[in-house]
Amino acid sequence: MKSDPVRRALVGGLAGALILAAGWRARVLLRTNPNGGTPVTLPNGMRIQQWQKMETDFLYEETFGKYSVYAKGNYIDFQPGALIVDAGANVGMFTLFAAHRCRGEAEIFAFEPIPTTFSVLAANAAAATRGDYSAAMGARPGASLKIHAINCGLSATKEEVIFQHHPHFSVWSTQDADFAHQRLDRFLADVAGMIPLAPAVLSRAVVRPFIAWMGRTKKVTATLVPLSSIIEEYRLDRIDILKADVEGAEVAALQGITPNQWDLVRQVVTEVEYFATKDLVIEILEAHGFTTYWYASERERYGDVRSEVCMVYAWRAGDRRTLRPTT
Length: 327
What we know:
The chain is of the alpha/beta class. The protein is 38% helix and 20% strand. The strands form three sheets. A seven-stranded mixed beta sheet has the order 5-4-3-9-10-12-11, sandwiched between helices.
C-alpha cells in the first residue's frame, strides 16, 4: 500500500487533472498538501492563520468568492454594530466575512468544538479584535470589533460528545458517524459521476484513495452547549444574525434556543445537508415567525450532482422590505 505522501503526489498530478477538469467541488480540494497552523494572505488582503490550504481555498470561495452563500441576493442584512453568532466557525472565515460586511464594527461569538481547529480560530479572532484586518475591512476610525472565540459546539443540551474529526478536511468533522459515512459515499458517487470516461484503474488507483484519505477520521472529545446558556451568560439582548454550519446538527442547534429567547433572533442562515432536514429547519423557523427562503446550493453551483446540501435563510418580515430572489 502506498504511503500518504505518494498518494498525495499522485493526486496532485493525474487525478488532479481529471477531477479539476470535471469542475466539481474537488477542484479546490486537490491543489495543495496540508500545512496547518501557517499564515496565508487571502485574495482580499487579510493575512490569517490557516489549518491547511486546500480548506482555505474552499472556504474563501464559498464565503468571500463569486459563489458566496452568504452574499447571495440580499437575504442577510449585515449592519455595523451587529451582534452575530457563528456556529461551526472552523478557522473563522465566516466570522471575518461578517466583520468585513459590518465594516469592522460588530460583536461576534464564534463557536468551534474541535480543539486543533479552534486554536487557529482563536488566533484569527485575536488578530481581528486587535485591528489587524481593519484596513481590509474598510473599518472607519474608532470602529469596535470584538470576537469571542469559544471552544464548544452548539446543540440542544450541554454534553460531552465524541466527534468524528477529519484531520485532512476539518470542515467535514461531525458528531454523527453515520452521517459522515453517508456524506463520503455521496461525495464519491458525485465525483465518479463527473469523470465517467476515466479508466476504472485510475479511479481505483487515484480517485478513491484520495477521497478515502480525505474521509479518514479521528475520534475527538468535544463539548456542546445550548445557545440559551450563552444568551444568559453574556446577557445578550439580541442576535442580529445566527449562522449555523454544523454538519448535520442543524436541528439540535436551533433546539438550544428556548421559546422565550426566539424573539431576540432577527436573522438565521444555515447550511443543511439533506432536503428532509431542510424541511424540519424551515418548520422550526416559520413556527417562530420567520420568513424563509432556501436553495440547493451545490446543485446550483456544480450541476448534475446528488448533493442535497442547501442554504436556508430566515428573517423577520417586519425588519425590512420584502426580499426578492436574486442570483
